[in-house]
């Protein structure tokens, strides 16, 4: 019976590592999409004339990028845990 429990534990750890790895990948990809997408949108639509590049960089890096990363993580976890 010990072999069955060990096999079940290995399968559980493998599933958890898969979820963790895909979550890290989703957060990284989400941050990058948010970063570059935010920079594009702010450069395109901002009316700021003085320091538009600084506004785009800071807002994308500290607001849009993390927001999209959290949304990507939530979406990935919902998708993976519904299986």
Topology:
Layout: H1 2-45, H2 52-82
What key phrases describe this protein's structure?
mainly alpha; 90% helix; 0% strand; rod-shaped
- Any idea how many domains? 1
Instruction: Supply Rg.
Output: 19 Å
Low-pLDDT parts are none
* Amount of helix: over 70%
Count of discrete alpha- or pi-helical segments spanning 4 or more residues = 2
Instruction: Say how many strands there are.
Output: 0
Characterise this structure.
The structure is a single chain. With 83 residues, the chain is mostly helical. The chain has one domain (21-82). 90% of the residues lie in helices and 0% in strands. It contains two helices and no strands. Helix 1 (2-45) packs antiparallel against helix 2 (52-82). The longest helix is centred in the N-terminal third of the chain and has 44 residues, at 2-45.
Quick structural gist:
With 83 residues, the protein is an all-alpha fold.
